[in-house]
Amino acid sequence: MSVKIKDLAKQLNLSVATISKALKDSHEISPETKQRVFELAKKLNYTPNPYASSLRKRSSKTIAVVLPEVADSFFSLAINGIESVAQEKGYHVLIYLTHESFEREEAILKEFQSGRVDGILISVSGETRSSDHIKEVITAGMPLVFFDRVCEDVETAKIITNDFESSYTATCHLLKAGCKKIAYLSTSSALSINNKRMEGYKQAVADSGIKEKTTRIVSCDSNTEGNYKIIFELLKNKNRPDGLIASVEKLTTPIYLACESLKLSIPREIKLVSFTNLQAALILNPTLTTITQPAFEMGKAAAAVLFKSLEKTNFNLKKETVIVPSVLDARNSSKN
Amino acid sequence: MSVKIKDLAKQLNLSVATISKALKDSHEISPETKQRVFELAKKLNYTPNPYASSLRKRSSKTIAVVLPEVADSFFSLAINGIESVAQEKGYHVLIYLTHESFEREEAILKEFQSGRVDGILISVSGETRSSDHIKEVITAGMPLVFFDRVCEDVETAKIITNDFESSYTATCHLLKAGCKKIAYLSTSSALSINNKRMEGYKQAVADSGIKEKTTRIVSCDSNTEGNYKIIFELLKNKNRPDGLIASVEKLTTPIYLACESLKLSIPREIKLVSFTNLQAALILNPTLTTITQPAFEMGKAAAAVLFKSLEKTNFNLKKETVIVPSVLDARNSSKN
DNA sequence: CTGAAAGCGCTAACAA
DNA sequence: TTGTTAGCGCTTTCAG
Q1: Judgement on whether residues B303 and B262 belong to the same structural domain of the protein
Q2: How far is A207 from chain B (nearest CA, A)?
Q3: Is the pLDDT of residue B330 over 70?
């Protein structure tokens, strides 16, 4: 096996306690001994056993990140953000994917009762209808912060973006571009972010000057092909919408494809805004107007808040809600 | 604190040893006691402390995944693949990003000497020129498998795709479409996958029927804007190439943008193939011909091999090299 | 079938 | 400034 404190102690004729303290640069140890300890440790390539230390200190220096999936650009960027601050703070990050399954999410959260992690960052699955599993782990004393997909009814830190406003803005943007019949393409209606986006859309239509204040909400909760069909049906109708809001990234491809099949010209016949961080928005034809979410920043912010609560005992997560605004990047898909 | 074996023991008037065995469904324990133990454990919501168990058993049931970044679609999909098999096997996955820095990679690997993880999955950084840090951890007895970006000179399992052939195929594809002057856009020349791709390209040009067997390799190792400039300069030249091979996903956007600025028509004036898994390839204009890598499968395969070596003592990682082939998806960007 | 006891490697009182 | 000692919670001989 690898070298341990005991080995260092033996070689230097010191006690394990002394070595342990020296390694942490404790002030109770003389500079000379520290020096000797450091040198030998380096020479023998000593690396402390993290599990022994975790067991003893009841803290693991690791956090968990629970995500639905790491498929779209949002979560990829968020992970980068989280990891960057974790690395800086010397924390390790365990990653768990729910694959949008509520059962998995429950099982994963339950395991955290064990003390494996010091804190949790979570973006809930689209199927999550109850938040008992989350409340339970919080009640057990575990710091938890939501990001992006939150449970409204759980009192803890939430890092979100301005979903309502973004959607409101997007809708107004389309209205201003001349759209009269805007459809909102939704998924995972259980998610609060989705509801907020939907509400923003509804509100904007209600506030608009157009006579026919009808809203059209189309549920697209399927795989790419399934969504393609749904959108195709929607658009081939002669009473089709003249504006579309794609509430999630994965709807973008089927929309473009459906328009292409139907020879619908974007933006002449139908205008489009998508919620996405895809860099490729710049090179689509036409270039895609997006609501760009601050994914990296949200990841960073979530991690930052969690670490603050881990480092300060008197820090109350309940009071922390950070809203990092999204921006509308107007491009050709919504041009007048 | 949470409930532990001792608590169960007390309540049931049994010893901790008995509880421990019962919980693992050991045959030395009577069915009745097991029953009682299971029930109480469930009732009290007992979750074993993983660190105590890791310390004792010298195994952590966790693996590390070391990646350059999780920005592009390849690594996102790979993580999904890895996580899916890890979850199935009951393993936890720690994620570490090197951000393409060799120093970070070294530091991260060094920490693994501590026994924090049972095995490692790694795709090396673009700056990694030496493999000593990797050999060291393997020598210390740690199972390690490379995926995608490997170190040729390290003897251990490697999950790769057919980079040479893919590039060869891509080049032939462009030649067949009529290209006479194909340029290869490269990054991170230290990486073996990049060299293989480059070699495939060179070989294809050499094997081709064209008289002027000149190859043109353009180094694009910068951020998006920097790469845009490099590509712009390349294409504005009157002796510009008529075919382009983008060896990595992130070059796609600057290429399309540069062509647009220069009013170069794809594929009429310049044809293009990219190494990418972007779903948006389908909706670019023109649609993008891609070498699509089996990212998810490679992640799965890498994890599968690692777990095999973790489960069977007589399994030799050195002999394991899996090649999961990429496919050429011909679309309009390379049409004749 | 059950239990006593040792110990994984480290930390933190407390003593010297 | 250094050392002794008692665990952290669990697993695993070995005895009963």
Answers
A1: no
A2: 34
A3: yes
Q: A1, B48: Cβ pair inside 8 Å?
A: no
CATH number of the domain that B270 lies in? 3.40.50.2300
Distance (Å, whole) CA B214 – CA B202: 9
pLDDT, tens only, B179-217: 999 999 998 778 889 999 999 999 999 998 776 667 899
pLDDT surpasses 70 at B259: yes
Domain that holds residue B301: 59-161+295-324
Q: If you search the block for the tokens 């019949």, which residue do you land on?
A: A181
- Domain assignment present for residue B19? The answer is yes
**CA-to-CA distance for B37 and B13, rounded, in angstroms?**
11
Q: What is the total count of domains within chain B?
A: 3
Question: Looking at beta carbons, which residues of chain A come within 8 Å of B92?
Answer: 94, 116
Nearest-CA residue of chain B relative to A255? B283
Name the residue closest to D5, CA to C1': A17
On whether both B261 and B310 belong to a single domain, the answer is no
Q: Nearest residue on chain B to A256, judged by CA atoms?
A: B283
Residues B137 and B108: beta-carbon distance below 8 Å? no
- Provide mean pLDDT across the span B77-99: 96
Q: Would you call B11 an interface residue with chain A, using a CB distance cutoff of 8 Å?
A: no
pLDDT of res. A40: 95
Mean pLDDT of A16-44: 94
- Picking from B95, B113, B284, the nearest residue to A284 by CB comes out as B284
Are residue B167 and residue B277 in the same domain, yes or no? yes
In this structure, which amino acid lies at residue A316? N
Which of B206-215's residues contact partners 24+ apart within 8 Å by CB, and which partners?
A: B208/B171, B208/B172, B208/B175, B209/B175, B210/B175, B210/B180, B212/B180, B212/B181, B214/B181, B215/B182, B215/B184
Q: How far apart are CA B206 and CA B215, in angstroms?
A: 9
Q: Residue B166 pLDDT more than 70?
A: yes
Encode pLDDT of A223-277 as tens digits.
888 999 999 999 998 899 999 999 999 999 999 999 999 999 999 999 999 999 9
Tokens of B86: 């890890």
Q: Is residue A220 situated within a structural domain?
A: yes
* Strands A182-186, A243-246: pairing kind: parallel
